[in-house]
Write a structure and sequence with these properties.
By secondary structure, this protein is an all-alpha fold. It has two domains: 1-96, no CATH class; 159-240, no CATH class. It is built from twelve helices and no strands. The chain has helices at 2-40, 44-56, 60-72, 80-91, 96-108, 116-127, 132-144, 152-163, 168-180, 188-200, 204-214, 219-234. The longest helix has 39 residues, at 2-40. The model is unreliable at 1-23 (pLDDT under 50).
């Protein structure tokens, strides 16, 4: 009996510690949600004041959000060095937004020396978590051979992952690859399909391309292409 009591007394501090950490985490999450509400209303200064203390306590999403404020100059002066600091802390906690943002900083040379290989490395971390914009950026890196060897097939695969999540720019680029036959057989019908899908989401360039491509399509091909677009939309862009 004494042994059981000793074991219980040993476990009790661990249980209490877990409970305390859980309550603290919930409190930080609520503060973060409040900060996002303020930011969405355009009250960036107030959002920053809420974010800073919880970011310093290690809240990963707050760190990423604070980095975004500094990189955009929302409620603060643009400061790429502070942005990098907060993005890196969040990225080390596996926040996809922060990993993607670091990729952009290296891609554009903001606050760091431009390094396309490092940019791709950060994009890849975010992309592997399913971050659609990062998947698009890796696709573009392979399409243009920036930071990696040019590879149209790999570009197409990354664009597809992004397009299947509804990212219109990836859908547009898939249309372009089909239209030009880049790494895949030239297919005007599928080019139309992806441009039509992208245009439905408001991509103006896709709308312009549809107008031009339609001029050289037969009525039969146009019917096929429209059917492909309709079926792909019904499947929510999966396996098109």
């Amino acid at each position: 009996m004494k042994k059981n009591i000793t074991a219980f007394l040993f476990l009790l501090p661990l249980v209490m510690c877990f409970f305390t950490l859980n309550v603290r985490s919930e409190s930080l999450d609520k503060s973060f949600e409040k900060a996002i509400e303020e930011a969405n209303k355009g009250r960036f200064v107030k959002a920053r004041k809420i974010l800073e203390p919880i970011a310093k306590q290690g809240h990963a999403k707050a760190q990423a959000a604070l980095g975004s404020l500094y990189v955009k100059g929302d409620g603060v002066s643009v400061d790429y060095h502070k942005a990098y600091k907060w993005f890196k802390l969040a990225a080390d906690q596996n926040v996809a937004l922060a990993q993607y943002s670091l990729g952009l900083m290296y891609n554009m040379g903001h606050g760091v020396a431009e390094n396309q290989k490092t940019a791709v490395s950060w994009f890849r971390m975010a992309a592997n978590q399913g971050y659609a914009v990062a998947q698009f950026n890796i696709g573009t890196s392979y399409l243009k051979g920036r930071g990696v060897d040019q590879d149209y097939s790999v570009a197409y695969n990354w664009y597809t992952k992004s397009a299947e999540q509804g990212f219109s720019r990836a859908q547009f680029n898939l249309g372009w690859m089909h239209y030009k036959g880049l790494g895949i057989p030239l297919d005007v019908n599928r080019a139309y399909m992806w441009w039509d899908i992208s245009a439905q989401q408001g991509d103006l360039k896709a709308k312009e391309n549809l107008t031009e491509i339609t001029k050289n399509m037969s009525s039969d091909d146009l019917l096929i292409a429209k059917k492909l677009a309709r079926e792909c939309t019904e499947k929510k862009y999966i396996s098109c």
